[in-house]
Design a protein that fits this description.
It is a single chain. With 93 residues, the protein is an alpha+beta fold. It has one domain. The chain is 19% helix and 22% strand. The chain is built from two helices and six strands. A three-stranded antiparallel β-sheet has the order 1-6-5, with helices on one face. It is globular, with a radius of gyration of 15 Å.
Length: 93
């Protein structure tokens, strides 16, 4: 739940290199999940554009902030070269 006007920081596996989201929602094999998704409890890795699109289709406002614009926050262990997604639920939602 996110109240209208609320902000979210969502950590999900995504890749800017994938052509499309790789997912198997019904998978229940920790070895295969580790191989495909890098972690035994994951069921997908999003294509970044697809992830942003899904958030927007759900009614969120999404701003992609490039890594270079986050320099003042590098000390907070931001993943090198990874963008930040500023996610907002509209106040009128």
């Amino acid at each position: 739940m996110l109240q209208p006007g609320g902000r979210a920081i969502l950590q999900v596996p995504y890749s800017e290199k994938l052509q499309s989201t790789l997912e198997e929602p019904q998978i229940n094999d920790p070895v295969k999940q580790s191989y495909l998704f890098g972690q035994k409890d994951h069921v997908r890795i999003y294509n970044l554009g697809d992830y942003v699109s899904r958030l927007r289709q759900s009614g969120f406002i999404v701003e992609i902030i490039p890594y270079a614009a986050l320099e003042e926050y590098y000390f907070l262990a931001i993943q090198e070269k990874e963008c930040f997604l500023k996610i907002l639920k509209p106040a009128t939602a």
